[in-house]
Every structure is written in structure tokens, then in C-alpha cells.
Amino acid sequence: MDxxxxxxxxxxxxxxxxxxxxxxxxxxxxxxxxxxxxxxxxTRGEEIRAFLLLALVMVPVLAVIFVASYGFMVxxxxxxxxxxxxxxx
Length: 89
Hints:
Shape: rod-shaped
Number of helices: 2
Order of helices and strands: HH
Structural class: mainly alpha
Largest sheet: none
Helix content: 40-55%
């Protein structure tokens, strides 16, 4: 029982606004009772598929994007600053 005489459970402890934003009004989604997938069990096959997606797709794609964006940045810089090397005579 709390001080108001109400039985305390995970859902009656705070109002729905308090569960989403906290008692001080700051957004706080990591509170007991907010995550509807908390009871879901992740299978081994799902973990393997997630790992393969990250390892074989996302990491190479992000690496290409990173290298391409760096090359684009250098190309733009050289349009303003000129090519590398000693200044022309």
C-alpha cells in the first residue's frame, strides 16, 4: 500500500503520463511496464540473422558510405584550396 491507500503494482504506481515522461516531466521511456516486448524471447535463428545482416550488409555499406563521403569532402576542399603539392611557379 502506498500513502494514499492504493495497492502498488507496476502499472498503478504511476499514471500513463508519468510512465512516459517521468514524475518531473522529462521523457524517460525506459521505465518498468512501458516496453511491450519485454516478455518476448529471442531465438537463436533470429540472433544469427541479425548478426549476418549487420556483418554482411550494414558494416560494408557503412564503410563504403564513410569512404565515399571522405573522398567527396577532399574533392570539394581541393576545388577551393587547389591540388596538393608545391604552389605553381
